[in-house]
Design goal:
- By secondary structure, this protein is mainly beta.
């Protein structure tokens, strides 16, 4: 087992210089409070944040010794959605509070067979891809989309 590099008790939504290391995490793995994780170099760090936090691609964990570990969105299995009327399709995805990466010519969402079937019925083209996932943050400053009960 690799020796523990350091503890990260702080998070910043952007880095402040040359990073000490990188940490590649999927969308789900970027939502955490306390966990030992392995950096891209193989060294381990203990994440020990005051509250559960959504770590953004490009954000940085600040180690106890002041160094920073930059967060990177790791490639993961997703659905790529295209359609002649992408705005209409985006509305239907958003209406279901589904995390969505919005781009000019396509949308990326997590694999969900029920949503896939709905999108196909609406005339969208859907295919599986493997890419980093950086969906839009929720409204009102939340880093994640949530149901109405927040």
């Amino acid at each position: 087992m690799t020796a523990l590099l350091c503890t990260a008790r702080q998070y910043s939504n952007h880095s402040h210089g040359e990073p000490a290391d990188h940490l590649s995490l999927t969308y789900e793995d970027r939502f955490l409070r306390r966990k030992v994780l392995t950096c891209d170099s193989g060294e381990q760090i203990l994440i020990d944040l005051a509250q559960t936090t959504s770590l953004d691609h490009g954000g940085a964990l600040v180690l106890d010794d002041g160094r920073e570990v930059v967060i990177q969105a790791a490639p993961e299995a997703l659905l790529e959605v295209t359609a002649p009327d992408l705005t209409r399709i985006a509305w239907h995805i958003g209406n279901r509070h589904t995390p969505c990466q919005v781009e000019t010519q396509r949308l990326l969402i997590q694999i969900d067979h029920v949503i896939r079937d709905m999108l196909l019925k609406l005339g969208a083209t859907v295919r599986e891809v493997r890419e980093p996932f950086t969906p839009e943050g929720g409204a009102y400053g939340h880093g994640r989309t949530h149901g109405h009960a927040h």
